[in-house]
Design a protein that fits this description.
Elements lengths: L13 H9 L4 E5 L3 H10 L3 E4 L3 H4 L11 H14 L4 E5 L9 H15 L3 E3 L7 H9 L4 E6 L5 H4 L9 H17 L3 E5 L3 H10 L4 E4 L7 E4 L1 H4 L17 H17 L11
Helix pairs in contact: 2-4, 4-5, 5-6, 8-9
């Protein structure tokens, strides 16, 4: 593991990410929602930390991302920002805080930036949210787009299946990607789309394209921390690689602690004052 000392830390910026794409260096991106975990993720050398609205699922136990509020997202983002010395921090603007009203979108983005200290925001959608994207960018707030499977629209889609398999939807996704780049977005997330389409998008735009379930031919990858660490066991899509089984490790630790307490083995003499 590469751990960065405070003396050698160089902050990742939108310019850094652009340079990484140009030289073909893959971009690493992972979610985090609290100070302690974000501190570890940052020290490991992660390029981007996403304070995702997936906090609605993995932190609050909701079925979808829809219930989480702007205030809650700012709370999580503030904790993450306090931990980070190197990573670029992106924060999801939650459902209902930017769609259909560009003035509200701008207010939401400004609140996130001012109150959390985050470095950018992320929004889901293409042409239908263009006005909001332009309005946020006009205030100097960096925006990351998100196309393909957009979890905030789950009730519209009715399923978490792969998106843009049909020609019409694939063409729209490509045009939306180009539109988001033209508006000024600094990067784009593609979720759960065919790998060939994701490759085409990445080659068609000059901004970094980050994939999740979008194959290997994009500029970087993102996963949800709780999924890749095996803390959540119920969610195991094809695109997820589980790097640890922390649920098992933590369960064993908790059970050993309970046993030691019950058996009066903890605390022992050396652990007492």
């Amino acid at each position: 593991m590469s751990v960065h000392s405070s003396a050698s830390v160089k902050r990742i910026t939108t310019h850094t990410l652009q340079e990484m794409k140009h030289r073909g260096e893959k971009i690493s991106m992972l979610t985090a929602y609290d100070y302690s975990m974000a501190k570890i993720v940052d020290a490991a050398g992660m390029d981007i930390i996403l304070v995702g609205d997936s906090a609605s699922n993995v932190m609050a136990g909701h079925e979808t991302t829809l219930p989480i509020t702007l205030d809650q997202m700012i709370y999580h983002a503030s904790a993450v920002v306090r931990a980070v010395k190197r990573s670029f921090v992106v924060v999801d603007i939650p459902f209902g805080s930017y769609q259909g009203n560009s003035s509200e979108a701008l207010r939401s983005a400004i609140r996130i930036m001012k109150e959390s200290g985050a470095h950018s925001v992320k929004v889901e959608g293409g042409s239908e949210i263009k006005e909001s994207v332009v309005r946020i960018l006009s205030a100097g707030v960096p925006v990351m787009g998100h196309l393909g499977l957009t979890p905030q629209s789950i009730y519209k889609f009715g399923t978490y299946t792969v998106r843009a398999k049909e020609e019409a939807e694939a063409n729209k996704l490509l045009e939306d990607a180009k539109m988001l780049e033209a508006c000024g977005c600094f990067a784009l997330v593609l979720e759960k789309i065919p790998a060939a389409l994701a490759k085409k998008v990445a080659e068609s735009v000059s901004i970094p394209v980050i994939g999740i379930g979008a194959g290997p031919d994009v500029d970087g990858q993102v996963l949800v921390m709780h999924d890749m660490l095996g803390i959540t066991q119920e969610f195991k899509p094809r695109f997820l690689r589980q790097y640890a089984d922390l649920q098992k490790t933590m369960m064993e630790a908790f059970q050993n602690y309970i046993s030691d307490v019950k058996n009066r083995d903890f605390p022992n003499q050396s652990e007492s004052y």
